[in-house]
């Protein structure tokens, strides 16, 4: 997935990142689906009219909706609630931003301008810093991994390895392999002490 994104960005020099205002809440639920969100309070029964936060499929629904709205526009990548616009020249980028904003307005999708970043030569997207030279891991994420205290139990080991896996670009990267095994053996076949010592 990430390798495909990097391939698409090749040759780009200017970037913008868009953030939707309370993204999920902008998506209406149809009446039948809305009934499934009913909850009871001392004041009666209520249900959601819009996609609420906390529903496991909400990010995918939002991403699919935004992708459909922006379908056919080159230079746009939608990944859950992040939308990245990229171009090779400033002129191309101005046209791209205008086109994207027009489509979003037509779909009544509002942006959170305070969180949007426009016309940047370097931008952070999916935990990586992207610029004309390529991409590299976000230094803040790398530091967070480096500064993690030594794990004390299996849960903390999993948390650490989950961070390493999330920070890996490719599913076959060393971080991913490390997340599955320790010294080539599955977690369950090893004692906790062995795993902790390898940290």
Automatic annotation (TrEMBL):
> Entry's Pfam families?
RVT_1
Keywords from UniProt, A to Z, are: Coiled coil
- Coiled-coil intervals in this record? 90-124
Which residues does the UniProt record annotate as the domain Reverse transcriptase? 1-130
Enumerate the residue ranges of region (Disordered).
166-188
- Protein name as annotated: Pol polyprotein
């Amino acid at each position: 997935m990430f390798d495909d994104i990097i391939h698409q960005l090749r040759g780009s020099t200017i970037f913008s990142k868009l953030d939707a205002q309370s993204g999920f809440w902008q998506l209406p639920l149809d009446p039948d689906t809305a009934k499934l969100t009913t909850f009871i309070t001392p004041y009666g029964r209520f249900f959601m009219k819009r996609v609420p936060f906390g529903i496991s499929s909400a990010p995918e629904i939002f991403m699919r909706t935004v992708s459909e709205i922006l379908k056919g526009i080159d230079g746009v990548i939608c990944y859950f609630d992040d939308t990245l616009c990229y171009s090779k020249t400033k002129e191309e980028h101005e046209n791209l931003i205008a086109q994207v904003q027009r489509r979003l307005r037509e779909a009544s999708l509002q942006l959170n301008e305070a969180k949007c970043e426009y016309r940047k030569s370097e931008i952070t997207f999916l935990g990586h810093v992207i610029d004309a030279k390529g991409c590299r891991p976000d230094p803040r994420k790398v530091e967070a991994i480096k500064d993690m205290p030594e794990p004390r139990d299996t849960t903390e080991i999993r948390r650490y390895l989950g961070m390493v896996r999330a920070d890996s670009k490719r599913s076959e990267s060393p971080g991913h392999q490390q997340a599955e095994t320790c010294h080539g053996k599955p977690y369950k076949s090893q004692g906790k002490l062995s795993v902790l010592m390898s940290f």
